[in-house]
Amino acid sequence: MAELKTQKTKASVKKFIASVENEQKRKDSEELVKIFEEVTKMKATMWGASIIGFGSYHYKSERSKQEGDWPLTGFSPRKQNLTIYIMPGFKEHQDLLAKLGKHKHSVSCLYINKLSDIDIKILKKLIKQSVTEMKNRYETTN
Length: 142
Hints:
Blueprint: H1 13-18, H2 23-40, E1 44-47, E2 51-54, E3 56-60, E4 67-70, E5 73-77, E6 82-86, H3 94-100, E7 104-105, E8 109-112, H4 120-137, E9 140-141
Antiparallel strand pairs: 1-2, 2-5, 3-4, 3-9, 5-6, 6-8, 7-8
Helix pairs in contact: 2-4, 3-4
């Protein structure tokens, strides 16, 4: 079985954020670290080259023999948008999504252009509910 490419690293979150070229994304990333640390009570760590994660959980795929560790929640300042990882998905969070503001989402990814497009209080609730749900489903670490 192939080893996962995205793994927890010892790279500096501050240095990574400082390297983000787009000034707005850099400032929003700094703010997101504060938001995630406040809500999760966990420190930011780098996962791979571009994901800032908080905590971790161990999973085993039901469809393959793949298993590994992954951030409990987190985000990545991508060129196109800020991608926020809500690992249990959005099925149980439609009420919050309706109040969030300008965004798009896929299975476990929330895409926003900038923090000023959304309601931060709603984002905090979404993160908190997501982390609680993940802790109920999986063995987690901080």
